[in-house]
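Mods, move this if it's the wrong board.
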Amino acid sequence: MKTKNMRGNRIRLITAILFISIYMLSALAWWAFALTRNQEIIYQKELALLEAKKQWAYDYSYHFSKTITSQSAENQSIVSLNGEEYLTDTTALKQAVKKLFPEIHVFFLTIGQQKTSELRLFVDTNLLENLKSTLHSKKRAWVWEGATLGLITLLIAAAMFFYVDKIIRLNSQQNNFLLAVTHELKTPISAAKLALQTLSRNDKPSLIPKLLDMANSNILRLSRMVEQILLATKFESKFTDPVFSETKVADLVHNAIAGLELPDDKRSLIQIHSSEEIDFQADESMMVIVIRNLITNAIKYGNNMPVELRVERLKVGFKICVSDQGMGISDADKKRIFEKFYRVGEEKTRTQPGSGLGLYLVKKITEIHSGKVSVTDNTPQGTKFILTFNQSNQLA
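Not the wrong board. Structure tokens:
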């Protein structure tokens, strides 16, 4: 049910972000289109104004030729305007038009062999090119700005999705953690309580050791659960204070396995391979938790097949490998199994005890000891966890 709720929340999140993104991209596209269209309108208005000025210049030339006569005979020419011919000073006409309409150029085209000239007016070609260039450059600018804002919108939407999705997943994992911890705490408490109640009412001395062992075993299980929760809290608050001392790796392995609450048939599955004594500067209680968690997981998911723990010396330092022959872990889960509260295939493994803190603590404690942890597929099947310690806190 929790998985379905999380999937539903993610679908709603994707739908909301997708809707907002489409709306924003549509608004940006319309904005860019409106700006480019407005620039085209401005360009057309500029062209219309130039055409109007050209017409005004022609009207002025007509008025000039009709009303103004030149005092210099050598500058006078016959000019054809509106089908009529006028004797006018062409040089003065050019200067007057240029002064009033600097965007317009005046030309006089001689007609055939006659001395009559026809007035021609042209808009400055450089001005037209500048207007067209301005149009294209601004259109490109609006398009690029729209595309840039669109890209930023997509990046923000993606960031929102990953951020909120992370919160949803973390919230789901925390809820699963609370359910798992509630079960993990309730089970040993109930078992210990039942054993003590039975002990208080039982008049058979032969059952007393068995009942005491049952109560002690469940109290120990409860204590270890609380210990892991407190340790995880310390890691989160950066309040860890490990106490390092020189110990032997073999002793750590022995203490971890000896403290496991396992039936004989499960304990017999553990196979230890260590060729030599290796000294190690470590916080013994923390390293025992690491080895114990790896062995517990291997037995839990190992399909009742042998679990191998191997200690090997390296050129610098050593490594500890814990292998099982279970169904293995998918590549997608391998990337997340060391996250706090994460459990592989939780919907299929609800019957298996666990809180999602085991491998998180393995990673954190290994890093405190200047080591690293990795996970890979075992051969022919299963999973292999490898702890590698090759920093200055190892002593050969």
